[in-house]
From TrEMBL:
GO terms for molecular function: thiosulfate-cyanide sulfurtransferase activity. The keyword GTP-binding does not apply. Keywords: Transferase. Signal peptide: none annotated. The keyword Transferase applies. This is Sulfurtransferase. Residues 16-108 form the Rhodanese domain. Pfam families: Rhodanese. CDD domains: RHOD. It comes from the Bacteria. Gene3D superfamilies: Rhodanese-like domain (3.40.250.10).
Amino acid sequence: MTAKITRSELQSVLGSAQAPVLIEALPARYYVDAHLPGAINIPHDAIDENIKQILPDLSAPIVVYCASGPCKNSGIAQTALTKLGYQDVRDYHDGKQDWLDAGLPLQGQGVLENTA
């Protein structure tokens, strides 16, 4: 079963003691352009055993996301992480577009260029 998280649920846990590791599952160029605040970039096709060096705690909460609902990268990343033994991986399925549509801030070079 795929565990999902909504924007409002994600907002409520970000910045809290239970804040998840937030992973953008898109290629680096999209992450550099704009990403959710505090997110790290691990493209869906780069998730392998080496991720355990970055995220050694298999029980840590993780939220993966990609561009929008039709994008499959976050689901692929969630499946890969679960197969590697991560126990609390949720998919923010509506992704970056939902965050932006809600008027919430993004970070990245593209965001800085648009505000200049």
